[in-house]
Design a protein that fits this description.
The protein is 39% helix and 22% strand.
Length: 634
């Protein structure tokens, strides 16, 4: 076995978009760090793969679209890809396929009300239960209930079969036994997951920030304490009488120093949470001032006069203060709202002129530019998008920032071990049938749980390793095919369809060149089909495969004159999507808790089965982990 004595700062295992983003973010912070990406395949990209046919057909082998969020938009902007964003036409409609018919599902309240597969009575019941919270929240279960049983117990089976089952097919390729908590929080993002957050690195960043604030508060508290004690020692406060359990941190105002001997100030303590304004932390008592009134016969005439003036000044406040304050607040709110409207109108006029006549704006202020950027961002955030020439443009532009020598393709990681003396990870890899040891200070695993269990088999407890191996996944096939327009009958407003059949072969499809007009010639209909892999024998040849796909497709879309499609590509994706089996969240929590132990220091595990499978999830989590590493180490 060969040995490579070079020690990397980071080894990223898996060459998908996550690792490409991690490389980009880490190098952006520190170009000098040494990073190696290990990829089992022959190129980067993972499930993002775009192909072309005859230079006029663009199709995706894996992911087709994603919903843009702030972090994914920021990456697109950094990579200068904003002009390539392709937004799906709002007029396109999702369809549900059931018993050889297509039912439109409009994404609106009225669209839901008119959706024919669910009875009106069940719709009213669901709306009532949600509005008045007449259902059991998924987080309140002490056991991991399946989404099928959860819907039957709290709502009805129609909503499960005709709405949720198609979404399960579309997002994970799974079945009704999928965990309700996992599906609703991870795939649909409708509820907060109380067991495992998808934003695990953000929570760790908050912990670091809180520690910094606490240390800063403690330092400021000690500094103020020492300064105030020093001041007190130089004044008459040093001779004032105090209780044994009381501390003095300040003294009389300088304006009243000449009367300090007529006044006593003491302090009692009370516990509180962090108070950054007072520069204190929870573990340090907060000092509460208690005034001891000086008897009237001991007050000087000057003091009594000022006291009477103060009382006269306070009286109108208590009598008329609240009404006056309400009036003042109301007037100020009206003025503020009016000014906001005026500013928005003024900006809209300026923005419109700037769009069409930018040459008129030679000197633009930063605030105006920031506002323009916010307005531009609003066009995209939350929209379902792709890129004009396919999603692989992400990888192409990220690869421009990745040095060729920092990629080890056709390489498999066998296992990792840690040298506790020097805190360095040993990685045993297999490349070109040769096993080699390489070394790194940090390891980031982005592979699925089964691969993760195998790589960590020498260091993980047996039970946790077994749990990772038992997590279930869906294997899918994608088939890209096209027909001549006259050969198939298809709704003109079709975005895509999902099946509501219990044992569907074709789980769903996208009408690709209806979503993005540049993907294919106008006289063609380009479809991307998603097929459950177990339904097609692995030993099928091309003709058998074509026949099987065509027979399944006929039950969904009418094909005219027995026309046969042109099959561009069929890709098998093994264990591509987590199916979130029973007790998934608890077992995942055990694994994540195990990684908190000292022996796993500088080992990071982040993949779709932990922090979300969508492209925006992967980009966001990579950005957050890089921020966490930078905060922690630098």
């Amino acid at each position: 076995m060969e040995t490579n004595d070079k020690t990397y700062d980071f080894i990223l295992v898996g060459g998908g978009i996550y690792s490409c983003c991690m490389y980009y973010y880490l190098k952006k912070h520190n170009p000098e760090i040494k990073i190696l990406i290990i990829e089992k395949g022959n190129k980067l990209g993972g499930c993002i793969q775009t192909e072309t046919h005859n230079n006029n057909v663009i199709y995706e082998l894996g992911a087709n679209v994603f919903k843009l969020c702030n972090n994914s938009y920021k990456l697109i902007k950094d990579l200068n890809l904003c002009d390539q964003i392709a937004i799906i036409n709002k007029g396109l409609v999702r369809y549900i396929s059931y018993e050889n018919k297509l039912y439109p599902l409009y994404l609106s309240f009225l669209g839901y009300i008119y959706f024919p597969l669910i009875s009106f009575t069940n719709k009213i019941k669901l709306i009532y239960k949600i509005l008045f919270k007449k259902y059991k929240h998924v987080n309140s279960y002490h056991y991991d209930i399946s989404i099928k049983n959860y819907m039957k117990e709290n709502f009805d089976s129609q909503h499960y079969q005709y709405l949720l089952l198609p979404l399960i097919y579309g997002s994970s390729g799974g079945h009704g036994d999928i965990s309700a908590l996992s599906f609703l929080s991870r795939n649909l993002k409708l509820v907060h997951n109380n067991k495992n957050s998808l934003r695990i690195w953000n929570e760790k960043i908050k912990t670091i920030d809180n520690d910094i604030i606490s240390k800063s508060s403690l330092t400021n508290f000690n500094n103020n304490n020492s300064m105030n004690v020093k001041k007190c020692s130089q004044s008459s406060c040093a001779s004032t009488e105090y209780d044994d359990n009381v501390t003095v941190l300040n003294h009389a105002d300088t304006n009243h120093n000449e009367h300090g001997h007529n006044r006593k100030n003491t302090y009692t303590t009370e516990n509180s949470d962090i108070n950054t304004n007072a520069n204190t932390i929870a573990s340090v008592p907060i000092l509460k001032p208690v005034s001891i009134t000086t008897p009237a016969h001991k007050q000087t005439p000057y003091k009594r006069l000022n006291k009477n003036v103060d009382e006269r000044n306070k009286q109108p406040f208590f009598e008329n203060g609240k009404p006056n304050q309400y009036k003042q607040n109301f007037v100020l709110s009206i003025i503020g709202y009016s000014l906001k409207i005026i500013r928005n109108v003024f900006f809209s006029i300026n923005y419109t002129i700037y769009k069409y006549f930018p040459m008129l704006y030679s000197n633009i202020g930063n605030k105006f530019l920031q506002r323009i950027e916010e307005e531009e961002k609003k066009k995209y955030i939350g929209k379902t998008v792709s890129l004009n020439y396919g999603l692989y443009e992400f990888i192409r532009h990220l690869k421009k920032h990745i040095h060729e020598n920092d990629i080890s393709a056709n390489t498999e990681l066998n296992y990792i071990e840690k040298n506790m003396k020097n805190n360095i990870w040993t990685c045993n890899i297999n490349k070109n049938n040769t096993k080699t040891n390489i070394y790194s200070k940090n390891i980031i695993l982005t592979v699925n749980s089964k691969m993760c269990a195998n790589i960590l088999r020498k260091i993980l407890p047996t039970q946790i390793k077994n749990n990772l191996e038992q997590f279930s996944y869906s294997s899918l096939m994608t088939a890209n095919i096209y027909f001549n327009k006259e050969d198939i009958t298809i709704p003109k407003n079709l975005f895509g369809l999902l099946s509501a059949e219990q044992n569907a072969h074709i789980l769903g499809c996208f009408y690709a060149n209806n979503m993005f007009t540049n993907r294919c010639e106008n006289n063609k209909i380009l479809l991307t089909l998603y097929i459950r892999d177990t339904n097609i024998p692995s030993d099928n040849n091309d003709e058998q495969l074509k026949k099987t796909i065509l027979n399944n497709l006929k039950s969904i879309l009418p094909i005219n004159n027995d026309a046969k499609p042109t099959i561009l590509n069929v890709t098998k994706w093994k264990d591509i999507l987590p199916a979130y089996s029973e007790n998934y969240e608890n077992k995942l929590k055990e694994f994540l808790n195990e990684l908190e132990n000292p022996q796993y220091q500088n080992l990071f595990v982040d993949a779709g089965w932990i922090t979300g499978t969508s492209i925006s999830d992967r980009i966001s989590s990579a950005m957050e982990l890089s921020d966490y590493i930078i905060k922690k180490k630098y």
